[in-house]
Design a protein that fits this description.
The protein is an alpha+beta fold and 395 residues long. It contains ten helices and 18 strands. The protein is globular.
Length: 395
C-alpha cells in the first residue's frame, strides 16, 4: 500500500485491490459510487493489514491528511471500543465496531456471489459501507442489515442516506435474522461466530449462500461459504483466513486462573510428563484453528517471562481440566502438567499429529456442515469429518 499522503486515494486503493484479486470488475462500479470516506467517522484507530493490533487515534479535525490516507489504505479502521464505553483518545480493551479492511470486504462479497434481483441479509451494519455497496449493486429494497448497537445503527443509517442509498437498517439481535424480509438469497455476517445461528439458514432459500467468519473456541478464524439445502441444512468450504470482531451475543467471558488451581500451589494435583511438541509450533492461526476443530470447549493463555520462555496454559471452559506446557528456547523437550478429567495436552498433541499425518492441510481443505443437530468440520469432503478428541462432548 501507499505510504505517502499525496498518493492515497480511491484510485490507488482500487488498483491495489484489483491487483490483489479482491476487487473484481462487477464490484468496481459500486466501489467508485460508494466512497469509503462517507462511511468513516472523524475519529478512528487504524489497524494493520495482517493482524489485530490498532495504532494510535487519528483525528480528522487535527490531521485531515493522515485521516484520508488511513481511509484509502487497505487496513481495518476501529471506530468504537468497549461497546461505546471508552470515549477517550486511548484505545480501549476490546474493539467493538469498525470499518473492515477493504480487501476482506470485497473478497467476502466475491464469496457471496450476488446476482441481480436477489435479496441479502447482512448481520452487523457497522459503519454501513458494506450495506451501501450491496444496496448500490442490488437496490436498497433488496438489502436488510441488522445492527445490535442502536447508536452504531443510527450513524450507519445517516451515512447511507448521505450517500443516497437506502437499505433497510434494523436494530436487533443478529442471531435472530429478520423474518420480515425473508426468504433471502444471500446472508453475510461482518462479525465472527463460534456457532452459526440456525435462523440464518432457515431464512435462506434452498440453494442460497451464507458467508461468515467462523472461529473455534480455542482460536483461529476463517471465512466459511455455506450453501443452504432443504430443511435449513448448510454445507461448504472455508475460503480465506480472517480476524473479525465477535458477534456480541457469542462473546465468551473466560474464567480466571484461580478457578482452575482452586487455591492450590502449582502443580496442584497435576500429573507431570514431557513432550517433544514445542508450544511454539501450535501457536499459528492455522494450527489454533486445527486444534480448535478437534478439541472443543478449550482455550489457551500464555504466561510470558523475560528470557523468551513462557508457559502455555490450556483450559477447559467448565474449569474442571487444565494443562501447562513450558516453552524454553532451543530446548528439545518441554515439561507438561495436566489435571482434571480431560487430558488437554494429550488432546492437543493428538490433534496436531492428525494434522501432520494428513499433510498439514491449509484452511482451504476444510469445510463445515450445519443442521438441526449442530455443526461439524470436515477435511476435503463432508464424508470425512474432522475427529473430536474430547469424549465428554458436553464440555
Amino acid at each position: 500500500m501507499t505510504t505517502r499522503t499525496e498518493e492515497a486515494g480511491p484510485s490507488r486503493l482500487a488498483s491495489a485491490l484489483v491487483e490483489a484479486g479482491a476487487l473484481t470488475a462487477d464490484w468496481l462500479p459500486s466501489f467508485q459510487a460508494v466512497p469509503r470516506e462517507l462511511f468513516v467517522p472523524d475519529r478512528i484507530w487504524p489497524g494493520i493489514a495482517d493482524g489485530t493490533r490498532q495504532n494510535a487515534l487519528v483525528d480528522r479535525a487535527k490531521d485531515p491528511n493522515a485521516w484520508f490516507q488511513a481511509v484509502y489504505s487497505d487496513i481495518p479502521l476501529t471506530t468504537q471500543w468497549d461497546d461505546g464505553r471508552q470515549a477517550g483518545d486511548e484505545p480501549g480493551v476490546t474493539p467493538s465496531s469498525s470499518n473492515s479492511m477493504p480487501r476482506m470486504v470485497f473478497s467476502m462479497l466475491a464469496d457471496l456471489d450476488v446476482r441481480e434481483g436477489q435479496r441479502v441479509l447482512e448481520i452487523g451494519t457497522g459503519t454501513g459501507w458494506n450495506a451501501g455497496l450491496l444496496a448500490h449493486r442490488l437496490g436498497g429494497t433488496q438489502v436488510v442489515s441488522i445492527e445490535y448497537d442502536a447508536g452504531v445503527a443510527k450513524d450507519a443509517d445517516e451515512n447511507l442516506r448521505r450517500a443516497g442509498l437506502s437499505p433497510v437498517v434494523i436494530v436487533g439481535d443478529g442471531r435472530l435474522g429478520y423474518p420480515g424480509g425473508a426468504p433471502y438469497d444471500r446472508v453475510i455476517a461482518t462479525c465472527s461466530i463460534r456457532k452459526m445461528p440456525r435462523t440464518w439458514a432457515r431464512q435462506t432459500r434452498p440453494g442460497g449462500v451464507v458467508v461468515a467468519p467462523w472461529a473455534t473456541e480455542y482460536g483461529g478464524e476463517h471465512i466459511v461459504r455455506l450453501v443452504v439445502g432443504d430443511a435449513g441444512t448448510a454445507s461448504g468450504p472455508f475460503t480465506r483466513s480472517s480476524a473479525f470482531m465477535r458477534l456480541r451475543q457469542q462473546r465468551t467471558e473466560r474464567p480466571p486462573f484461580a478457578a482452575y488451581l482452586k487455591g492450590q500451589e502449582w502443580p496442584a494435583d497435576g500429573t507431570k510428563s514431557t513432550t517433544t511438541l514445542s508450544p511454539a509450533d501450535i501457536g499459528g492461526w492455522l494450527q489454533q484453528f486445527v486444534i480448535g476443530l478437534q478439541v472443543p470447549g478449550a482455550f489457551w493463555r500464555a504466561e510470558r517471562y523475560a528470557n523468551g520462555s513462557y508457559t502455555l496454559w490450556t483450559y477447559s471452559a467448565d474449569t474442571r481440566s487444565w494443562a501447562s506446557a513450558d516453552y524454553v528456547p532451543n530446548a528439545d523437550t518441554y515439561e507438561v502438567v495436566q489435571s482434571g478429567p480431560r487430558r488437554l495436552w494429550d488432546e492437543t498433541e493428538a490433534a496436531h499429529r492428525w494434522w501432520e499425518e494428513n499433510g498439514q492441510p491449509d484452511f482451504d481443505r476444510f469445510g463445515l456442515n450445519a443442521d438441526e443437530y449442530g455443526e461439524w468440520a470436515w477435511l476435503d469432503s463432508p464424508d470425512c469429518p474432522v475427529p473430536l478428541r474430547n469424549s465428554d462432548k458436553s464440555a
